Amino acid sequence: MLLVTGGAGFIGANFVLNTIATSGESIVVLDSLTYAANPANLETLVDDPRLNLVVGDVGDRSLVRSLLEQHQPRALVHFAAESHVDRSIAESDAFVRTNVNGTHALLEESRLFWNQLAPQSRDRFRFLHVSTDEVFGSLGPQDPAFNELTPYAPNSPYSASKAASDHLVRAWHHTYGLPTLITNCSNNYGPFQFPEKLIPLTIHRALAGESIPVYGDGSNVRDWLHVSDHCTAIRTVLEGSSPGETWVIGGNAERRNLDLVQTLCDVLDRLRPDPEGRSYRRLITFVTDRPGHDQRYAIDAGRLRDQLGWTPAKTFESGLEETIQWYLNHGDWLENVTSGRYRDWISQQYSGRQG
């Protein structure tokens, strides 16, 4: 079985659902159920004995210790993280607490657990840490894409906290021999993503007839990876990689933010036309840029392709249309997660920032 932290969040929940569906392996999820996590993401497994959802903090070492001792997982897959750049700029404490201190707690308890395992179980155990391409900083228009040898140069409190956690994971392997793995992925999209991120934010606001905020002039570039492809890549690394390895994961889909938002509007025009026949593009509004906004991210996942045989199964076009259709079909889910504190945050974040 697997112990998965953050398994009720966006990427973690997709990993849990996909893994149980494809492998049948039992999973214990440890999640503190912060604002971006949602037990409803796992509701199709609510009566499934292969899933055990434990509400708790990754920094609670006694809880982590008891879960490791009770369930004897063959791997710990660590998704739990504060992940929104804008929130890290406004309030960095939670990012250091969860991303740095929480990862340290997991590493220490995993090390103690691993040390007392029988030799065969020790050889099999893995600690897989899920990270981001943002730790590598910003690329210029003609710079080569990030790969596993790219130096770290984080530019936001969020990316700095993830870089710190990456370094801890590497050190626990080098110093203690803990069999760790690190993955650094590009921007994910797909079902269950909390609508503070660009794609679900655009969908939600377009359907509500509200302005769609685009930072600066919209020229910032991101590489987009469908969450199902990311989950497949993680399982590929977990099963096929040697301890101590780092892998970058990308979707081969670089897009400017403005181009992405315009494409989203065009697909919505087709799938959910405005009652008055107007294009959703009319709602696009340029707002004051994010402080320290990285210009471009790009991933060269050639090593993962050549050595472990992984490539994205979805094209950006097919994945994006599937994602939009999912949100259109799950209006209740979207409404439930966009009430209360979410509305307060959006108002605080974008009010008065029109460019």
Give a short synopsis of this structure.
With 355 residues, the chain is α/β, with parallel strands linked by helices. It has 13 helices and twelve strands. Strand 1 (2-5), helix 1 (10-23) and strand 2 (27-31) form a beta-alpha-beta unit.
Key phrases:
seven-stranded parallel sheet, 355 residues, 12 strands, three-stranded mixed sheet, Rossmann fold, alpha/beta
Q: State the major sheet.
A: 7 strands, parallel
According to DSSP, the number of beta strands is 12
Compute the average pLDDT: 94
Supply the CATH class of the domain at 2-190 and 225-254 and 292-314: Alpha Beta
Number of helices: 13
Q: What's the CATH superfamily of the domain at 2-190 and 225-254 and 292-314, by name?
A: NAD(P)-binding Rossmann-like Domain
Identify the CATH architecture of the domain at 2-190 and 225-254 and 292-314: 3-Layer(aba) Sandwich
CATH names the topology of the domain at 2-190 and 225-254 and 292-314 as Rossmann fold
Oligomer: single chain
pLDDT < 50 stretches: none
- Termini separation: 51 Å
Helicity range = 40-55%
The outline comes out as globular
